[in-house]
Amino acid sequence: MSVFHRFANPNRFLKLTNTVLPWISGITVLSLLAGLYMAFFTSPPDYQQGETVRIMYIHVPSAWMAMFIYSSIAFASVCSLIWRHPLADLAAKASAPIGAGFTFLALATGSLWGKPMWGAWWVWDARLTSVLILFFLYLGHMALMNAFEEQERGNRAAAVLAIVGFVNIPIIKFSVDWWNTLHQPASVMRADGPSIDPSMLWPLLIMGLAFKFFYLVVVLIRIKSELIEAKLRKYRRAVVDNA
Amino acid sequence: MSAFLNIVSKDLRLALRQRSDLTMAVLFFILTAMLFPFGLGPEPNLLARIAPGIIWVTALLSVLLSLERIFLADYEDGSLEQLVLSRASLEIAILAKVLAHWLTTGLPLILAAPLIALLFNMDTEAMTILLFAMLLGTPSLSLIGAIAATLTLGARRGGVLIPLLVLPLYIPTLIFGVGAIDAAMNSLEAGAVIANARPHLLLLGAILLVSLLITPLAGAAALKQALE
User: Fold this and answer.
1) Which residues of B touch A174 (CB under 8 A)?
2) Per the CB < 8 Å rule, is A164 touching B171?
3) Range of the domain at B40
4) Is residue A2 part of a domain?
5) What is residue B167's predicted lDDT score, i.e. its pLDDT?
6) Using CA of residue A98, residue A100, residue A106, residue A111, what is the dihedral sign?
7) Could you report the predicted ipTM of this complex, rounded to two decimals?
8) Each residue's pLDDT tens digit, A151-202
9) How many structural domains does chain B have?
10) Per residue, what are the HEC states of A24-35?
């Protein structure tokens, strides 16, 4: 807990961010380049799906991030509500649009992948449907955060919502799975997962790493700019008060 | 316990004096359900087939209409503040408000549902299951909706926000609510109706129990922030 509270001080946090940021930006760029190169050139086309399988290298990491970022927001919300940690609210606020972006990317690439595979831009497949619901959870979270005159109240309300949503995600996931098996017994699911070939698994994992670091970079930059903005506001107020 | 009953009876009395609020949700329910035959054609088999989904979706939307009302009037006239300041438990107070909301919205919808089921040519067995499913499902709608109602107190465009917050969380209730009736309608033998619908009804009950747990906690946290 001591480390946790240590970085409640914004200046200390900024200092750490400034030293870490160049490194993780470098990792992001390198892993993204390596991952994209492997995805496009060294990995083989699928024997059934052909070249379209390459959509996976964007689609699957995006879907991972969609879930990961929502969990991070829920965790930050718990920290914000219990410890009133000043940076937790900022982290949740900074993460939400990124998470929504990744969720949208997962949906869009899923749709692009679905067209050649299933012959339709959209099928009510259990996974697609639950990601769509997750997208709306993100939108609700962001809308609630910005719905109040005082930012503080918006942050708190959104934190409660994020936790309620997080508790609900397994219930929604389960019910959508159930609904789907009832309505579409012959669902077009591919048997990927752990049986995937290493020549495809490595680019996928590297892309996953790149996406995770990308998130880290963007979220740190966004928190930093929020902190700088708060400082600016304080200075401006001081100037007005002195005048 | 007396605080609980006081709140319930106060809200019920208020609702009975403004009967337009009470009837609005039911009227909306019947009217929107009535639109579907015009949109889809009057064929009896088709209507019977889609009736469970239509009844649940329109019931969901009708509940949505009245959610803002649960706390807004009390928030605006200050009685919510008195409630928070009083020594009564906020969690119990929220449950009381939700019960009053269900009695004035969910219960009338359940009473109106057989009428729509009749208009849509549903058979009596499916109708019985529909009533059971709504009895288990509509309280969850009030409970989950109450969280959104507390979170949006004092928000700009609070009424527009509530659907966005609540509808994703309503999906499990909708799925199992419709699933129960579908299972009942698809069962061939007469005795299997209850057995087929049972898992769906049990899951609706589980959702109800979970929301009974979450709503007081989340609602109390949200109310305290709203009145800070």
Assistant:
1) 172
2) no
3) 2-226
4) no
5) 93
6) negative
7) 0.88
8) 888 999 999 999 999 988 888 888 888 887 766 544 344 444 456 677 788 8
9) 1
10) HHHHHHHHHHHH
In a domain, A222, yes or no: yes
Distance CA(B17)–CA(B9), nearest Å, equals 12
Q: Is residue A217 part of a domain?
A: yes
Helices B69-77, B90-101: axis angle to 10 degrees equals 120
- Rounded to the nearest 5°, which phi and psi values hold at A227? -65, -40
- A171 with B210: Cβ contact below 8 A: yes
* Interchain contact A165–B (C-beta under 8 A): yes
Q: Does the distance separating the beta carbons of A157 and B225 come in below 8 Å?
A: yes
A196-242 pLDDT, tens digit per residue, is 677 788 888 999 999 999 999 999 999 999 899 888 988 998 998 88
Residue of A nearest to B221 (CA): A160
Is B176 an 8 Å CB contact of chain A? yes
Domain containing A236 equals 21-185+201-242
A160: nearest CB among B169, B179, B221: B221
Check if the beta carbon of residue A31 is closer than 8 Å to that of residue A213: yes
pLDDT per position as a tens digit, B64-119: 988 988 898 888 888 888 888 887 788 999 999 999 999 999 999 999 999 999 99
A67 inside 8 A of chain B by CB: no
The reply to whether residue B157 touches residue A137, judged by beta carbons under 8 angstroms, is no
CA distance B171 to chain A (A): 7
